[in-house]
Amino acid sequence: MIAVTMMKCACESCKCVVSIADAIKENDQYYCCQACANGHVKGKGCGHNDCRCG
Ligand SMILES: [Zn+2]
Ligand SMILES: [Zn+2]
Ligand SMILES: [Zn+2]
């Protein structure tokens, strides 16, 4: 059995892929960072290069 360990961040405009072990889990979805998990309420991006979410 192969476990899925990598997931794309659940934030729609985020392109980051995170391993489930490192991801922030929120409402059964996995996010690359707290800013994405919060839905960017503070207008803060995730800060990763090439990623325009936030
Ligand atoms: Zn990102
Ligand atoms: Zn993200
Ligand atoms: Zn995001």
From TrEMBL:
One of its GO terms (molecular function) is metal ion binding. Gene3D superfamilies: 2.30.170.10. The keyword Membrane does not apply. InterPro entries: Metalthion_dom_sf, Metalthion_fam14_prok. Keywords: Metal-binding, Metal-thiolate cluster. Coiled coil: none annotated. The keyword Metal-binding applies. This is Metallothionein. It comes from Microcystis panniformis FACHB-1757.
